[in-house]
Amino acid sequence: MKTYSVPIKAFSCVVQITKEPSVADFDANGLISTKEAMVLGLTLSFNCIATGVGAGLTGIDPISSGIAVFIFSMVSISEGYMIGWKTASDRFEHLSRVISGAVLILIGIYELLN
């Protein structure tokens, strides 16, 4: 049996960003532009596919669950931004990557256990 592969550049980019989110900084200037943020957000939203399948299997209303996810995402992103903005200083700047990585790892562990 022959196996064929079709390279899809956009999908390859999504996989790379999922494995290493810093890849989303395409111009490697240390700042995430609007375009880069949109690509990163799209890539990170792919976990919603599995959630959607699970919701469909259990019969949960997709409109109400989508609205709830949107609201809680906006609240948590806004709160995280405010906390980060208020605590940003030269003292924490060198630890920002470590702290953000640790938070993402903790969220991942929490998701795996639940």
Report on this structure.
With 114 residues, this protein is mainly α. It has two domains: 1-45, no CATH class; 61-114. The chain has six helices and no strands. Helix 1 packs across helix 2. The mean pLDDT is 76.
Label the overall shape. globular
First-to-last CA distance: 39 Å
Q: Count the beta strands.
A: 0
Order of helices and strands: HHHHHH
Largest sheet: none
* Helix content range: over 70%
Characterize this entry briefly.
With 114 residues, the protein is an all-alpha fold. It has helices at residues 9-19, 34-44, 47-58, 62-87, 90-93, 96-113. It contains six helices and no strands.
Topology:
Elements: H1 9-19, H2 34-44, H3 47-58, H4 62-87, H5 90-93, H6 96-113
Task: Looking at this protein, list some descriptive labels.
114 residues; mainly alpha
